[in-house]
Design a protein that fits this description.
Two copies of one chain form a homodimer. By secondary structure, chain A is an alpha+beta fold. Chain A folds into two domains: about 5-70, Winged helix-like DNA-binding domain superfamily/Winged helix DNA-binding domain (Arc Repressor Mutant, subunit A, Orthogonal Bundle), CATH 1.10.10.10; about 75-185, Hotdog Thioesterase (Thiol Ester Dehydrase, Chain A), CATH 3.10.129. Chain A has helices spanning about 5-20, 25-30, 35-45, 50-70, 105-120, and strands at about 75-80, 85-90, 125-135, 145-155, 160-170, 175-185. Chain A has a six-stranded antiparallel beta sheet with strand order 1-2-4-5-6-3, with helices on one face. In chain A, a hairpin with a 4-residue loop joins strand 4 (about 145-155) and strand 5. In chain A, helix 2 (about 25-30) crosses helix 3 (about 35-45). The first copy, chain A, is elongated and about 70 Å long. Strand 3 of chain A pairs antiparallel with strand 3 (about 125-135) of chain B. Chain A binds a DNA duplex (30 and 30 nucleotides) through helix 3 and helix 4.
DNA sequence: CTCATATTAGTACCAAGTGCTAATAGCGGG
DNA sequence: CCCGCTATTAGCACTTGGTACTAATATGAG
């Protein structure tokens, strides 16, 4: 017979993690054991019942929602902003942001934080990035907090352009510098083909 | 007597919106009516029961979570790769990648695709981006497929440096150009799984 | 074979409901 | 004052997805 109580329990854990909305009965079909066995497994693994799992997820989002809504599409949390002048955001580097091998953050996360901030600092919400130059000066690793400071260094409202410089640092040490040429999409002006 | 059926229902709506985790019984205390009245009210207002409300919130977050995860590893699907020479990937722009207002893809996704590809084309997996210059030539919208072509244009193995140029296009039309200066983290390459 | 563990079955019970029927309250109009 | 109407309340059966517990049965290892 299938001896794999351990395997089943591992698979069970994975399965529930992947889809917390699954009932014991569905699981019992999936693993071809009785519902009771699933229940025993859950007890041993200290996995709560469906409703508690769902509630947990819901509570989490509900709490997050308050935080994430105002900033919506921004990577990193905006701490301070002075429209058309400067802005500041922080981004905590977590394991999912880094290369597995050396724990160094992938460049596009730093870029995303800086670019989001550059977009946010513009007085228009519909700002697009036209050009940018980046320097990745020091590697950033998981667990570090990156503070990005954006500054509008040149503004040409008549041409719908502005230049934003973003400097990101970890504990006072500069890790990234980017300059962004931004385009303001006032009204429906399409085709920013440059 | 309190005539306010309408007021109560309005208050009920607000109350549930503010805290979806409240049971009918709690509501019946809050409004000093019977549980049945609360139920009738919910029916009239088409407000689902507690569990369904919670589930709804949970599903919403869960989907968001899955969506926001893929900014993890390689962005875009690598179609063809010739190490140290060139590589090609495609990236389908989906609703979650664009600004809600004008459906234009956020810059960091294009960057992420290009940067990921630049990293991938390097013979080392532990390649870091040092500098880069980007041009966002045309807006890309949801539903479009971005094809990125990376080419190693200069290689200095002795200095552990290489320059990669990435050109991204949608239907033959160039939308993005980026040049990346990459740094090889050679070290002594260990077990190369992944 | 025997013993422990694993699994299954079955029962009672719970929370938070739905769905339904029926009783009652309150009040306004004729 | 009674009629009729809506609003409210009560009560019961049933549902989901469980918990808690007991008991029976497999199954495998020593």
């Amino acid at each position: 017979m299938k001896r794999p109580k351990k395997q089943r329990q591992q698979a069970l854990k994975d399965s529930i993690k992947e889809n917390p909305f699954v009932t014991d009965e569905e699981l019992s079909n999936e693993f071809d054991v009785s519902v009771q066995t699933i229940r025993l497994d859950r007890m041993e693994l200290a996995i709560p019942e469906l409703r508690e799992r769902i509630k947990h997820v819901a509570v989490k989002t509900f709490e997050d929602e308050v935080k994430s809504l105002p900033i919506d599409e921004v990577i990193g949390e905006i701490i301070d902003i002075e429209l058309d002048k400067k802005a500041l955001s922080i981004f905590d580097v977590k394991p999912e942001h880094v290369f597995q091998r050396n724990k160094i953050a992938r460049g596009h996360h730093l870029f995303a934080q800086a670019n989001s901030l550059a977009v946010a600092v513009m007085n228009e919400e519909l700002a697009l990035t036209v050009k940018s130059e980046l320097q990745f000066l020091r590697p950033v690793t998981a667990g570090q907090r990156v503070v990005a400071k954006a500054e509008v260094i040149e503004s040409h409202p008549e041409k719908n352009r502005a230049f934003v410089k973003v400097v990101s640092s970890v504990e006072q040490l500069t890790v990234f510098i980017g300059t962004f040429e931004m385009y303001r999409m006032t009204e429906q002006s399409e085709g920013d083909t440059e």
